[in-house]
Specification:
With about 240 residues, this protein is an alpha/beta fold. The chain is built from 9 helices and 8 strands.
């Protein structure tokens, strides 16, 4: 598969069974599992939560990640980074590592302007994080959106959907038409890393990497399998 495959776990506690407290516990256990296994990024994508609820959950997730995530011995950076979906304000308030911006959110350049006004990023300890100390991911569905994310200085893009999504019984979900490998390959010509999302499985992930993707993203890929197995499969020794 070539270079090390980046792994991006997108959370969805509604896929777990039980009442809200049970689903929340299951989600935090899965986050701990992902951090321990060395998943690179976790996007907290619990869109139905209030700002206060999301802030509380983010702080709990960060504590777990910092307890469970191993350190890279060469630079002492954490292996796993937490992103907040859309909410730059909550990401900054909680000390998360980045924000994932949808196409209707503020532009990456505007996030950078916010960071420029925040003196916290001038502190020496802020340099424990890579790049500009606060990572910006962008959702993209077309090559044009990828090029826009690149021009607006996103650190990387999550391109979707590459394959058709599946629902119960293996039936394709009536969602956006999949872009396919050829379009993914074109998107990967951009100068920022591209992660493939949408119907990615342990069987077809290699085709995404062969097309030039820096890694893969998913919800079910991580929540329906043992994450240690996912990491072992996609990052063979």
């Amino acid at each position: 598969m070539g270079a090390r495959c980046l792994l991006y776990y997108i959370t969805d506690r509604t896929q777990f069974r039980g009442d809200e407290p049970t689903r929340r516990r299951e989600l935090l256990l899965k986050i701990a599992e992902a951090a321990k296994a060395g998943v690179d990024y976790i996007q907290l994508r619990e869109k139905d939560l209030s700002a206060r609820e999301l802030e509380t959950l983010a702080r709990e997730a960060l504590k777990i990640i910092r307890d469970e995530s191993p350190l890279r011995t060469e630079n002492r950076r954490r292996r796993t980074y937490l992103f907040l979906n859309s909410r730059t304000d909550i990401a900054l308030a909680t000390g998360a590592d980045g924000v994932h911006l949808r196409s209707g959110d503020i532009a990456p350049t505007e996030v950078r302007q916010i960071l420029a006004l925040d003196k916290r990023w001038e502190r020496p300890e802020a340099r424990l994080l890579p790049a500009d100390h606060f990572l910006i991911a962008a959702s993209c569905h077309t090559v044009a959106e990828v090029l826009r994310a690149e021009s607006e200085q996103a650190h990387f893009a999550v391109f979707a959907p590459v394959f058709g999504k599946k629902i119960s019984g293996g039936v394709s979900a009536p969602a956006t038409k999949p872009a396919g490998i050829a379009v993914l390959r074109e998107a990967c010509q951009a100068r920022i890393p591209i992660l493939a999302l949408g119907g990615v499985t342990l069987k077809n992930a290699a085709s995404c990497l062969d097309a030039g993707a820096a890694g893969v993203a998913g919800i079910r890929l991580f929540q329906e399998y043992k994450i240690e197995e996912v990491v072992r499969t996609l990052r063979p020794l």
